[in-house]
Amino acid sequence: MIKTKIPIKKVLKEVYKQKGFPTGPFNSCLTCKCGQNAKGGACCRHGVYIDKESYDHIIKHKTYFEKKIGIKMEDFFDKRWSKDPEYLGKKCIGTRVRNGGCSFRSPSGQGCEIVSLVFKKNLPRRMIPSACRIYPITWDKGEMLLEKIKKNCVCIDKNNKTKKSIYQTQKKEIEDIFSFK
Q1: What is the pLDDT of residues 11-62, one digit of tens each?
Q2: Beta-bridge mates of residue 6
Q3: Any idea what DSSP says for residue 73?
Q4: Model pTM?
Q5: What angle do CA 133, 134, 136 make, to 5 degrees?
Q6: Is residue 136 reached through a cis peptide bond, with omega within 30 degrees of 0 on the bond before it?
Q7: Fewer Cβ neighbours under 10 Å: the N or C end of the chain?
Q8: Number of separate helices (H) and strands (E) present in the chain
Q9: Cβ neighbours for 131, distance < 8 A, ≥ 6 positions apart
Q10: C-alpha angle with apex 20: 18 to 23, nearest 5 degrees?
């Protein structure tokens, strides 16, 4: 099976300079200090655009998510799809914000139920939305850059002392999602 990828023409220098996660992005997602106040990580306080490809994986586990979070699947998502060729599957749909965070945020407030399920059941990483897999890196119009984050986000803390850059700690995910031209 040939995996589709999102084309990138340019990577901004800030992506190579920003220090990365000390224990990798997904461990940080489930244990990040910015999520320890039961409001979710700084990145989870907003909805996310989910790639069509991720959505298709998520729907296969509809019953799990409905039971775990306590809402019907149609209440997880916005009503309309956006046709955007810069997403896997060439379109995306937003998640709704409920109780101050993304609808897939763990009821405990710490971490994401999509990430948690992928690791518990060894499911394909493409189930995790691209935006979440590479956060705080993002992309727009063929450029890879850092997300504009306000505050309380450990992953872009200027005092981060890790040896690897965010690009290095996210490299496996980046190579799976993007093609470079």
Answers
A1: 999 999 887 776 666 666 666 666 555 555 667 777 899 999 999 999 999 9
A2: 178
A3: G
A4: 0.89
A5: 125
A6: yes
A7: N
A8: 8, 10
A9: 48, 49, 138
A10: 170
